[in-house]
Design brief:
The complex is a heterodimer.
Chain A: H1 15-20, E1 35-41, E2 47-53, H2 55-59, E3 63-68, E4 95-96, E5 102-108, H3 111-118, E6 122-127, H4 134-137, E7 155-158, H5 161-166, E8 170-178, E9 190-196, E10 199-204, H6 209-220, E11 227-230, H7 246-258, E12 262-265, H8 268-274, E13 281-289, E14 295-306, H9 318-322, E15 328-337, H10 351-369, H11 373-379, H12 397-408, E16 421-422, E17 425-437, E18 443-449, E19 455-458, H13 468-480, E20 487-490, H14 507-531, E21 546-549, E22 552-555, E23 558-564, H15 565-572, E24 577-583, E25 593-605, E26 611-621, H16 628-647, E27 678-683, H17 707-719, H18 730-733
Parallel strand pairs in A: 1-12, 10-11, 14-15, 19-20, 26-27
Antiparallel strand pairs in A: 1-5, 2-4, 2-6, 3-5, 7-15, 8-13, 9-10, 9-12, 13-14, 16-17, 17-25, 18-19, 18-24, 21-22, 22-23, 25-26
Helix pairs in contact in A: 10-17, 13-14, 16-17
Chain B: E1 5-7, H1 12-21, E2 25-28, H2 34-39, E3 47-50, E4 59-61, E5 67-70, H3 80-85, H4 87-94, H5 99-104, H6 107-112, H7 118-121, H8 163-169, E6 173-178, E7 181-186, H9 187-190, E8 209-215, E9 221-226, E10 237-246, E11 249-258, E12 265-266, H10 268-274, H11 281-291, H12 303-321
Parallel strand pairs in B: 1-3, 2-3
Antiparallel strand pairs in B: 4-5, 5-8, 6-7, 6-8, 9-10, 10-11, 11-12
Helix pairs in contact in B: 4-8, 10-11, 11-12
Classes of the chains: A alpha+beta, B alpha+beta.
């Protein structure tokens, strides 16, 4: 751990504001003359609007305007998939593709007037027959054409999978299902739009202001520099704010038509129906192995639902492609369209549901072989990437297994299921591997050193709750040689240097590298200034003979000889001294991933079987850890989220209409505090400089991958019951 | 949400008159349920009659050992004598909702809360309870939460209260006041089965107000709630049991179930299995089996039958061990 910043367990810089209510979120934005919008939702899942009567809404108190497909909005162009979620622009016709689809937007002087008027819009439908569920859609499943949205192979073959299966002495084959689940962040999506002439400013709950600016510009036919996106703090996202959704464009449209700022806070119900979800999956896995446990072959066939206005395959099969050394493989991903909203990235896209299937199948194989699940995984460790054959940039998975097994007390596991008891409780241990490809994105930042010794970091990334503001400050402080409390940061505004999105676990590595490069640039410039300045005690020294600590530059050979940044810059009248950082990921000779191992203990009352995760231990290999406090907090949150996925999360659908049955936080269950036992997180904490200059990799997703499988495997160990459908509710255990 | 009038009467008589004068009026107490129904467009009253200032928030012990709980006593009520005399009731209250909601929710409101049936709570579905005569989308829908007992072709919803289940086991009486004066309704007659009029959920007339709940002295009681997560979830199945044992023999027993019917479901057959027998594992097991008598499982809720058996057994066992 560096005393200067990296790794230090600093409390989040915005923590006090958040707990005192001083923090400003997007819904706190108030602009002069601002009006408020409410969106009207389709009541049916399929068909078309026969008529839409907005007269009562228009006549309601305070109403300024009502817009719908009848107003024929002229979108310039459909923005590029993937970061606009759908191929159909809102209000472009009278067709209904899912219940909850926006069919009108009502703008009024107050939020309440808008909500009231929205309830007065009368829609008549020509209802079609919906495809309500994935189950009903399965017969028409298909493999998507390789296109824009599809940035991974839909089918992969390695070696001769069928022959390898036929020749395998041990085989396991099973079908796993994961549920339709929803991000359910506390903060709903919010947009405030304001135009000045042809310039649009959007205050938007966005996980990627830079990416989203381009999409909005495309939709309205504006040059990118005419659109500004601002995102203050985000109150949770988990992927729901990865894409631009219809409400953002509709609010901008209404603001333009009305010539005044307009804000919408979408309803909780609309959060469940119009800002994405993780689609349900059906996954078939077959594994062939030698009797000693070495894998010969894996086949992984996965189908997920998608909407009628987007093709979005869920990349579950990458788990099977890249986790273990297996010479033969066949994977395939298929789509099945149902009349529900469009799915999107949700922590963790692909690997969440995919690792559930693969890691349960591995556990089934271990049971079949009578092998220890950890030992089976060690035996099949992928020393190089099993598909490309390239070396890993950094991999400490074996260490994760070793540390995890030791700290958890894995040796106490009895491999005979259902044998450990205490009172009414059955006790079980389970484990799973985590692996996720590390993505890289171009990112830029500036770092300014001011004459007062203060430092300002400017970069258009955003903090969605993971601690980015704090970690970026630590990266800058470390590279500059100043105390973190001298550094402030500004993010979430496209007027800043373009930063990285805050999704796909790319902020720490990519944006962190940009900040580091900018800080190094500023530090180097300051040292050059000093050694070339006759007025400086450091004059004449070689640049590399100078070090910086606590904001003071000094001669390495004689630390008494030196001066502070503040003195140097003041004397030279440089304010600020700006460093620029541009991180451009290049084609690499390495495969880069994050890794981890999860160990979990469940207890289950044998008569009243609700699974309780009393103890969970994760060992995570995500390069160097930027802040042990925010990292632990994020990992615990990710693990808790995934315990929810394992045990209770499910947005149930009406089997006839397909409509969501519990689009509310009362009934959409996530864990409550009382559901959560002890959660230990250990980090390997070795920098991966082959991945990026900072040596840090993403944590947001790796911490949750494999958790649901570890829980399911523990349930098997406790009960002898193999539950292959998530969530593992009491109903499934009775 | 539709605009509505709001009135805040200062006496029970005034509140009853306000209800009588406006057929679209509804009572608001803690508001923990009604506000969400208003927001979601499930209810659209013309007037809300606020009963928070009627002085109905008192607990009064009677000389004969019974207690009158004011209808506006909050579900967070913390009274040591209540805890000792009616442990089953306090356990039921503590198992409901969250501390924040219990601080607001009232006894009267708890009895009158509406079903959690998704088909009722989402106006885009047909529901005879919300919109009489429109049909019941739950019949062909997701059956997981539906009733095992007392359902009808027009409604399969269950009552969500924990408190009411305990009140049935404790033989409570609901005190109400209306234009014609006061009357007392035994708790078992307070909630009614759906039949062909599922919109009618209680024996309360629309211009009557619940003013208090009376609990007679009761034998030892216990409440057990089984649900999908540890707290802040409605019961899959719950059981309230009150059993009097003397000389090793059960003298009286009352057993009521939650989560299985449109009202707290009293299990007379299970009670009969206990009375006159020793309060031991074999008779408890028989009572658990008997509790499922008359269950009519529907697609999706079959799991509740076995759960009833186990929840009743566990509740009685825990009471016996207490």
């Amino acid at each position: 751990m560096s005393e200067q910043g990296i790794g230090a367990a600093l409390t989040r810089v915005e923590a006090r504001d958040k707990v005192t209510g001083a923090a400003r979120y997007t819904a706190d934005v108030v602009l002069p003359g601002m009006a408020y919008a409410a969106l009207v939702s389709s009541q049916v899942s399929a068909g078309r609007l026969r008529s839409l009567d907005v007269s009562a809404a228009k006549a309601a108190p305070g109403v300024l305007g009502v817009f719908s497909h009848l107003d024929r909005p002229t979108w310039h162009r459909v923005p590029a998939i993937p970061y606009f979620g759908e191929t159909r622009m809102p209000f472009s016709d009278d067709r209904i593709h899912h219940a909850g689809q926006h069919i009108a937007i009502v703008v009024a002087s107050t939020r309440q007037q808008a909500a009231h008027a929205a309830a007065l819009v009368k829609a008549e439908y020509e209802a079609g027959k919906p495809v309500p569920t994935l189950e009903k859609a399965l017969p028409s499943a298909y493999v998507a054409a390789q296109g824009n949205y599809v940035n991974f192979p839909q089918e992969t073959v390695r070696g001769t999978p069928e022959e390898a299966l036929a020749g395998s002495p041990v085989r396991v084959k099973a079908e796993y299902r994961t549920a339709l689940i929803s991000h359910a962040p506390i903060e709903p999506s919010v947009t405030t739009a304001t135009w000045e002439g042809d310039e649009l400013t959007l205050y938007d709950t966005s996980q990627a202001v830079v990416v989203h600016r381009g999409l909005v510009a495309t939709a309205f036919g504006l040059p990118e520099d005419k659109v500004r996106l601002v995102c203050p703090l985000i109150g949770g996202a988990f992927g729901a704010k990865t894409h631009v959704w219809g409400h953002t464009l509709l609010v901008a449209l209404a603001a333009r038509r009305l010539g005044r700022p307009v804000q919408v806070v979408i309803t909780r119900k609309q959060m469940f129906t119009t800002t994405g979800h993780q689609p349900p999956t059906v996954q078939r896995i077959e594994i062939g192995a030698e009797r000693d446990g070495r894998l010969r072959v894996i086949t992984h066939d996965s189908t997920n639902s998608t909407s009628f206005v987007a093709e979005r395959p869920e990349n579950t099969v990458l788990s099977s492609v890249a986790t273990y050394a297996v010479p033969n493989l066949r994977t395939r991903v298929r789509l099945a369209r149902m009349n529900f909203g469009t799915p999107t990235a949700m922590r963790t896209p692909g690997d969440g549901p995919g690792s559930f299937a693969l890691e349960c199948a591995l556990d089934e194989l271990a049971h079949e072989l009578g092998a220890d699940p950890v030992e089976l995984r060690r035996r099949n460790h992928a020393d190089v990437h099993p598909q490309s054959g390239k070396p890993w940039s950094g991999k400490n998975l074996l260490e994760c297994y070793r540390i995890g097994a030791e700290r958890f007390g894995w040796h106490r596991r009895d491999r005979r299921p259902g044998t450990r008891r205490e009172g009414n409780d059955l006790i079980g241990y389970g484990m799973a591997t985590a692996r996720r490809v590390e993505h890289h994105r171009a990112a830029e930042s500036t770092v300014d050193i001011r004459t007062d010794g203060g430092v300002v970091v400017r970069t258009a990334t955003q903090d969605i709750g993971g601690g980015t503001l704090t970690t970026m400050i630590q990266v800058a402080a470390d590279a500059l040689g100043v105390a973190p409390d001298k550094v402030t940061i500004t993010v979430g505004d496209t007027d800043l240097p373009p930063g990285a999105p805050t999704f796909g676990s790319i902020t720490s590595g990519s944006n962190g590298s940009a900040v580091r490069l900018a800080a190094q640039d500023a530090r180097g410039a300051a040292i050059r200034l000093a050694v070339g300045d006759k007025g400086s005690p450091l004059h004449g020294l070689a640049e590399d003979a100078v070090d910086v600590r606590d904001g003071r530059l000094f001669a390495k050979a004689d630390p008494r000889r030196g001066e502070t940044y503040a003195v140097l810059l003041t004397r030279n009248r440089v304010n600020p001294l700006r460093g620029n950082g541009k991180y451009s990921p290049a084609e690499s000779q390495y495969e880069t991933s994050t890794f981890g191992a999860h160990f979990t203990e469940v207890r289950i009352d044998r008569d009243l079987p609700r699974v309780r995760v009393v103890r969970h231990l994760a060992v995570i290999d995500c390069g160097i850890v930027l802040n042990t406090k925010t990292a632990r907090n994020q990992a615990q949150g990710g693990i808790i989220g995934s315990i929810g996925v394992a045990l209770m999360e499910e947005l149930r659908q009406d089997p006839v209409s397909g409509r969501a049955l519990a689009p509310a936080l009362t009934d959409y269950h996530v864990p409550v505090n009382a559901d959560i036992g002890q959660i230990d997180v250990h980090f390997v904490n070795k920098p991966d400089h082959n991945s990026n200059p900072l040596g840090a990799k993403g944590l947001g997703e790796i911490c949750s991958i494999g958790v649901s499988a570890a829980v399911a495997n523990a349930v098997f160990n406790a009960t002898g019951r193999r539950i292959r459908d998530l969530p593992i509710t009491p109903r499934r255990l009775l | 949400m539709r605009p509505f009038h709001y009135s805040r009467p200062g006496s029970v008589g005034e509140a009853v008159r306000a209800l009588g004068a406006d057929p679209g009026a509804e009572v608001i107490a803690g508001g923990t349920d009604l506000v969400t129904l208003l927001r979601d467009g499930v209810r659209a009253p013309s007037q809300l009659v606020d009963v928070n200032r009627l002085g109905l928030d008192r607990l009064s012990w009677q000389p004969n050992g019974s207690v009158h709980i004011g209808a506006m006593c909050r579900n967070a009520v913390d009274d040591s004598r209540l805890r000792r005399a009616y442990p089953g009731l306090v356990q039921a209250l503590r198992s409901g909702a969250s501390p924040q909601i219990r601080n607001r929710a009232s006894f009267g409101g708890n009895l009158l809360q509406r079903t959690r049936c998704a088909y009722f709570r989402l106006p885009e579905f047909d529901c005879n309870k919300r919109n009489p005569g429109s049909g019941c989308a739950a019949l062909n829908g997701d059956g997981a939460q539906t009733a095992l007992f007392g359902a009808s072709p027009s409604c399969v919803a269950v009552h969500p209260s924990d408190c009411a289940v305990a009140l049935v086991a404790l033989n409570a009486v609901v005190h109400v006041e209306g234009p014609a004066g006061a009357r007392r309704i035994p708790i078992e007659e307070f909630h009614v089965l759906p039949g062909e009029t599922p919109q009618r959920e209680t024996a309360l007339r629309r211009d009557e107000l619940v003013v208090a709940i009376e609990l007679p002295p009761a034998p030892p009681s216990h409440y057990l709630k089984f649900r999908d997560r540890t707290s802040f979830a409605f019961a899959l199945v719950s059981a309230a049991v009150a059993v009097e044992v003397s000389g090793g023999t059960v003298r009286s027993a009352r057993i009521a179930l939650g989560g299985v019917a449109a009202k707290p479901w009293r299990c007379l057959a299970a009670e009969r299995e206990l009375v006159g027998k020793p309060f031991t594992a074999p008779s408890i097991a028989k009572a658990g089996d008997a509790a499922t008598e008359g269950a009519k499982p529907r697609p999706g809720n079959e799991y509740k039958v076995e759960l009833v058996r186990r929840v009743v057994r566990r509740a009685l066992t825990e009471l016996g061990n207490a």
